[in-house]
Amino acid sequence: MAVVHIPAPLRSLTGGETDVVVPGATLAEVVEALEERFPGLKSRLTEGDRIRPGMAVFVGGVQTPFHLSTRVPADAEIYFAPAISGG
Amino acid sequence: MATETKYRVIGTRPVRPDGVDKVTGRALYGADIVLPRMAHARVLRSPHAHARIRSIDTRQAEALTGVLAVVTAKDLPDVDAILMVGEGGDVNMRHASHNILAHDKALYEGHAVAAVAATSPHIALEALKRIVVDYEALPPVIDVRKAMEPEATLLHEDQFTDTAGEKSEKPSNIASHTIAEEGDIEKGFAEAKVVVEREFVTQTVHQGYIEPHAAVAEWRSDGFLTLWCPTQGAFAVRQQCAQILQHPASHIKVVPTEIGGGFGGKISVYLEPVAAILSRKTGRPIKILMDRAEVLMGTGPTPGTYIKVKMGVDAEGNITAAQALLAYDAGAYPGSPVGAGCMTVFAPYRLKNVRIDGYDVLVNKPKSAAYRAPGATVAEFATETVVDEICEQMGLDPLEFRLKNGAKEGDWRPFGPPYTRIGAIECVEAAQGSDHWKAPLEHEAPNGKRRGRGVASGYWMNWGGTSSCTGRLNGDGSVFLLEGSTDIGGTRASIAMQFAEAFGVDYAQVIPQVVDTDTVGYNDVTGGSRTTFGTGYAAHALAQKMQRDIVEKLAPIWEVEPDTITVEGACYASNGKSATIMEVAKLLDEKGIQVVSSVTTSPHNSSGAFATHIADVEVDSETGKVDVVRYTAVQDAGKAIHPAYVEGQMQGGVAQGIGWALNEEYFYDSAGKLRNATLLDYRMPTTLDVPPIETIIVEVPSPDHPYGVRGAGEVPIVPPPAAIANAIYDAVGVRLQTLPMSPAKVCAAILAKEGAA
Predict the structure, then answer these.
(1) Counting C-beta atoms within 10 Å of the first and last residue's C-beta, which end of chain B has fewer, N or C?
(2) Any idea what the CATH number is for the domain that residue A42 is in?
C-alpha cells in the first residue's frame, strides 16, 4: 500500500488528512483509489492521462515522469509538488 | 574535507578544450554565423507597456526597396500545448507564441509585434519605421502587490487563479497560488520566545549575459529547417519551435553555437521562430540579432517580488515556527519561479511548523525567465535577514544558530520527500573554520568608513534530467565524445574528465564536441545545475558501455569468449593475452572494426547543494555607498570534478549576487516604460565592485552520482544579498529590506535611524 502525502491545498478534500494509505500498482491506480475515498481529488491531481501541468510527482523518493503508468512499489511514499524550472 | 576515493583524472585542473578557440577569437557565437544569400531581419517592438493592437499596416514597409518580407503574429499558427522545457517546468506554448509576436495585445514595452527581412540590416531597421501599428493604450500594472488587488487592470481576461487545480471564480492577475503546510503554525509561534516578522521588496533584474540573443534560420524548400543560435538547450529550441511553428521536430535541426552566457535566460526562444518564418517566406537564410536594449526590454528577466517572512525561536534558540508569503511578478504571462522560491525559502533549516504561500502574478513586464537558482536568491534574502535579526535579538552566534537549526538527512522539506544526504551543516562548519570568519574585524576603517560582517546560507535543488552521449573510438586510442549539452561553464572538460576516469584513459585522449540535434540523442537543457551531474553521469555510463562493446569486438580477434576478457582501467586481458586501450584501438582499426557507442540516461537527483557565505563590507555613512571588501563562499560540490571550474562558478555567482544586492534593478516609470535599458544605466558590477572571492569547496558526496557530483552553478548566487545586508547592519545598524541596497536607500536608512535616535 502506498502512502500519499496530500498537498496542503487539497487537504480540504481529505478532511484534513495529510498522509493517506491507498492501494495501487501504478500511479493511475493510486489516483483512482484516492478518488474513491476522497471524491474530487483526481481532477486536482491529473489532467487526461498525465499529472497536471505545473505539478511534479515523487514516488519512492524519485521524481517520476508525468504519465500515470508509472509503477508504484509496495509501501512507496508519494509526494505531489509544484514543477520547477532552473537556470 | 576530501573524500576517500583516489582518482586519476577527477579533481585535477586541466586546460579546457575550447579555451584556445575562445581566446583567439576563432569560436563562433550566434552573430558570427554567415550563410550564402543570407538576409537580415529586425523586430518592431511595442512602445506601450499595455495596449490593444487594433491593426498593423505593413504596406509601406513592404514597398521599401530591399525589403523581402514582413511578418506579424498572423504568420504564426494557433498553438495550444503545454511543453516541458527545462527543469520540469511546464511552458504554455500559446503564451510562448504570443510572447514572440504579440497577437491582440502588447503586454509590455518591448513586446515584439512585427519583423522585417531585408537585404541589409539597415534597410530592415528603416522598414520598421514604416510599419503602422494602431494601438489603443491601456493602463499598465507594474507593481506586484497592485496587480494582486481585485480591481487591478487585467492583463488577460481569461486568466483565473489556479490553486492546486481549483480555479478562482473571477479572472485575476494572480495566475497561481502555491501552498505548503506542515505541523501547527499557531502552536509553533505560541511556543516562541522571540518572533520576528519583516516585509521585503526586490526589483526585476536581468541575467546580464554579455552575448545578446541571435538566430540564423534556413528553411529549405524540402521543409527541413536548420537553426543556429546560442542556447542553453538545442533540443529545447527544437521542441519549442516545433510547437510554435507546428512543424515536425524531425524536420528541425538546431546547431548550438558557442554561448556568451545564459544563466537561465537562453532557454526560452524569442528570435528563432521569427527567423524561421521569415526564411520560409523569403526562401533565403535569415539572421536576426538583438541589441542590448532589446535584450533588456524583450527577453525574460527575473521577477520583482514582495516577500513577508515570520519566524519564531524558543529560549534555547530552536526555530519553533516559520511562515512566508512570496509574491513574484511573472511578467506578461504566467510562470515566475515562485514555486522554487517556496521550496528554497526555508531550505537551510529544520522545521516542524511551517506555512508557505506563493503567488505567481501577472504584470506589464517582459515574461520572466529563469535566472541562476530562480526564485531562491530573493527568498533567502528575506529569510536570512530575519534569521540575522533573531540572532541579534537573542545574542546568538549566527553560524552556531545555523548549526543548531540546520537541515540534515531525513528532515522535512516543502513539496517533496525528506532530504537525502546533504551538506548544509558541513558548509556552516567550514565557514566557522575559515580564515575569514576567524579574522578580527575593526568596525572603524582607516578611511573613516564603517565596516561590518554578515553571513547567510542558501540552497538550490539539483536536477538530473536526460542526457545522451556518443563515443567513437579512434585508431590512436583517442575517443570522440559527442555531447548535446551546451558548454557554458566548462562542461566539455568536466564531462570529458568523467569519461576519461571511467574509461581508463588520459584526459588528453578524450576529444569532446558539442554537436547538433541530429547528431546525438536527446539532451535536456544546460540548466538546473545539472550538466556536470547529468551529462557526466551519461559519460560515465558511456565509458562502461564502450568497454563492453570493445570486449565484444575484441573477443573474436583474440579467439576467446567475451566473458573471459577482463577490463581494468585501460588494460584488456584474457587467457594470458593483454593489451592497452591504445593497442586494442589500433588492432580494431587495422581490421576495419568501428566502435561507436551511445547511451541515454535520466538519473534522479535527490539532494541539491547548500552554501554559506561570509561578507565584509565598508559603508560610507555620508553617501550610503557600500563596498564589499572581503568575501568567502563555502559550497558543497559533492565531488569537484574540475575544482577550478567549481571555484569559477562560485566566484561568478557571488559577482552576480553582489550586483543584485547593491545596484541592479529595472527602473520603470509610471507609464510602465523601462528607463534604464542600457548597460550604462542598468548598472552591473565591474571588477572595481568585486573583491577577490575566497572559495572553500566542501565535498559531501551526492548519493545519486557515481562520483558524488552535486550541481555547482546556481547556489552561489543565493546567499550574497542576505550576507551583504547583514554585513551592512553590522556596519551601520540599519536593516535594508529592499533590493538593490543602493547608496540612496542606504543613506536614507542611516538618516532615518539618526533622525529617530
Answers:
(1) C
(2) 3.10.20.30
Q: Which domain holds residue A61?
A: 2-82
Residue numbers of A between 37 and 66 with CB closer than 8 Å to B: 43-45, 52-56, 58, 61-63, 66
Q: Are B497 and B508 in contact (CB under 8 A)?
A: no
The pairing of strands B510-514 and B479-483 is parallel
Best residue in B82, B90, B532 to probe A by mutation, most A CBs within 10 Å? B90
Q: Does residue A87 belong to any structural domain of this protein?
A: no
Name which of B82, B176, B343 is nearest A84 (Cβ-Cβ). B343
Burial (0-12, 13-18, 19+ Cβ within 10 Å), B649: buried
Domains, chain B, ranges and CATH?
19-26+464-601 (3.30.365.10), 33-138+211-260+266-298 (3.90.1170.50), 305-462+605-756 (3.30.365.10)
Inter-CA distances, B714 with B197, B295, B428, Å: 28, 22, 18
Nearest to B88 among A10, A61, A83 (CB): A83
Q: Is A14 on the interface with B (CB under 8 A)?
A: no
Say whether residue B207 is in contact with chain A using an 8 A CB cutoff.
yes
Helix (H), strand (E) at residue B32: none
How far apart are alpha carbons B550 and A53 in whole angstroms? 43
Query: Number of structural domains, chain A?
Result: 1
Are residues A77 and A60 in contact, defined by beta-carbon separation less than 8 angstroms? yes
CB contact under 8 A, A82 and B342: yes
Residues of B within 8 A of A55 (CB-CB) are 164
Taking the C-alpha atoms of residue B369 and residue B374, their distance in angstroms, rounded to an integer, is 8
Range list of H helices, B71-207 = 93-100, 121-129, 144-148, 185-190
Q: Do A83 and B89 touch (CB under 8 A)?
A: yes
Cβ within 8 Å, pair B178-A82: yes
Write out pLDDT tens, residues B227-276: 999 999 999 999 999 999 999 999 999 999 999 999 999 999 999 999 99
Query: Å from B704 to nearest chain A CA?
Result: 10
**Could you give the ipTM of this predicted complex?**
0.92
Closest Cβ opposite residue A84 in set B176, B267, B340:
B340
Confidence of residue B2 (pLDDT cuts 50, 70, 90): very low
